Amino acid sequence: MSVTVLAEHRQGTIRDVTYEMLAAGRRLAHEMDGELEAVILGDDCEAMASELTRHAPRVVCGCHPALRYFSYETYQHVLLKLIKERKPAVFMLADSALGADLGPSLAVKLDAGIVSDVVDFHWTDNELVVSRGMHGGKLNADLSVKHSPAIVMVRQSFFRPEPIKIKGELVHYEVNADLETGLQTRHLGIEELSISGIDITKADILVGVGRGVKEEKNLEPVQEFADSIGAVLVGSRPVVDAGWLPKERQVGSSGKTVKPKLYIALGISGAFQHIAGMKGADTIIAVNKDPNAPIFAVADYGIVDDLHKVVPVLRKRLQEMKS
Amino acid sequence: MKVAVCVKRIPDTAESEIKVDDTGKDIIKDKLAFIINEPDNYALEEALILREKSGGTVVLVSIGPKETEEVLRIGLAKGADEAVRIDNAGLAGSDAIVLAGVLAAYFRKEQFDLVFTGCIAQDTQDSQVGPALAQFLGWPHAMYAIRFENKDNEVVVRRELEGGSLEVKRLNRPCVVSFQTGGNAPRYASILGIRQARTKPLERLDIASLGLEQDEVGDTGSKTRLIKLYVPKVSSAAEILQGTVDEKVSKIATIIKEKGLL
């Protein structure tokens, strides 16, 4: 019985979610009385593989020129063979742009069970039980998954990486397949998000707005409030999708990760994608109508109320304090 | 170009409290409004834009009960040409892979050039149906697309990666493209559109008419089984300030001052 974690990396750097999965995977492997191994694929991933041996007892490293950029097709080709040979009970990958492109098609090919947005897992009576988020994190579900293998897509920025340093074994995996023929997709390049205005990752105070702002015109008093305290206005995905704030002001896993001294979250329910981008703030104050909003799980202080009532009063109070 | 858009009708829980029912396996829905899954709305808009440019047909496909037709009629009112509802009788307990298999059974019977889906179902938070459907059909796919260009025999998509950068990717056609929100501005239905939608074709199918056996779907066909639903415990709870708006704000202002946060 083993747990295999697919390492995720970009531009020569291992992504944090890999260490998060290895920490969580180690615990699961322990419960199963099994082994943990990491798999890393790439064109030149020796250095990263060797870095991973400090976090996993065994690291399987598969190098091939065609694996230079992630493609679900080439990854799938290699992993189908690898999984059939090594037979892990649980195959773990991130619920990410990489994982969601790869996991479901791998599950179909392997005729395996798969679960998205996984936040916990246990091995009881030879059965894998996973907890996963639903409805923007407002609800959880416990599911049992057939493990032949079970494909587990792990929520990013959720599990805590462990500082443990071990000296694992590095196993070279021969990728000798023809990975170039018969491909139906081709990677053409990466376009970085260009920043034309303020770099929100450098601001000390951020005021974040979410769906609770309801209408674009309601943004004005919030902007004025932000200006009055010298804060930069940022937003969660729905506000940016609506075009009310530019993409470079988006906080979250598909936007920017910020660590300001103070983050005031207004009408943000706290979908995990947003929380992933702001939970590192020194102090978090949240205002939301829903007492069960997940944002209150990461906030230091909370006000359960309508942001439109709170903002004008808060602005006035803070101004009085200044003078 | 014949484009299918897979859509899902879901309860709108973004701004409301969720409660689990007595069975522990479903949520209490009678006070909730139902809407189209938001990413699907962006997928539909992309299909409508494509048809305006290159002509063709846009067909909505959904799995669900009779009420799903409300969402399909709205999609037709926005401009889709036809709709198909696959009845969910016999599908209780089906996981996302099984549902992708049901859709695949439909797409094997019909000829399409493109299938668009949303990148995630916002109720179950599964981001699986698009890529799994593509794999069942042997087609290529792309997840988290926010830009789409149709070329002669292929398509080019820009898909969103973490941190907001985009991967540019070329796919052979036919293919499945799963859209993230934010890439376009979904239209509203016009009065004229709503009137026209009433007479647009809406086909009704069920698992038997797709040639599926009962044991391939539902609980028996799924490799995941729901044990229970629950509202997650708030782990490191915030200090919730009490009182009137004035009192709560005064407390927060005092904290901000004392901690020197500004």
TrEMBL record, chain A:
Cofactor(s) the protein requires to work: FAD
Residues engaged in binding FAD: 211, 236-237, 250-254, 267-274, 288
Keyword list, A-Z: FAD, Flavoprotein, Transport
One annotated GO biological process: fatty acid beta-oxidation using acyl-CoA dehydrogenase
Record text on cofactor binding: Binds 1 FAD per dimer.
Stored InterPro entries: DHS-like_NAD/FAD-binding_dom, ETF_a/b_N, ETF_a/FixB, ETF_alpha_N, ETF_asu_C, Rossmann-like_a/b/a_fold
Domain Electron transfer flavoprotein alpha/beta-subunit N-terminal: 3-185
GO molecular function list: electron transfer activity; flavin adenine dinucleotide binding
Family: Belongs to the ETF alpha-subunit/FixB family.
Name of the protein described by the UniProt record: Electron transfer flavoprotein alpha/beta-subunit N-terminal domain-containing protein
Source organism per UniProt: candidate division WOR-3 bacterium JGI_Cruoil_03_51_56
UniProtKB/TrEMBL annotation, chain B:
Matches recorded under InterPro entries: ETF_a/b_N (IPR014730), ETF_b (IPR012255), ETF_beta_N (IPR033948), Rossmann-like_a/b/a_fold (IPR014729)
Record-linked Gene3D superfamilies: HUPs
Listed SMART domains: ETF
MF annotations from Gene Ontology: electron transfer activity
Ranges of residues in domain Electron transfer flavoprotein alpha/beta-subunit N-terminal: 24-214
Superkingdom in the source lineage: Bacteria
Listed name of the protein: Electron transfer flavoprotein alpha/beta-subunit N-terminal domain-containing protein
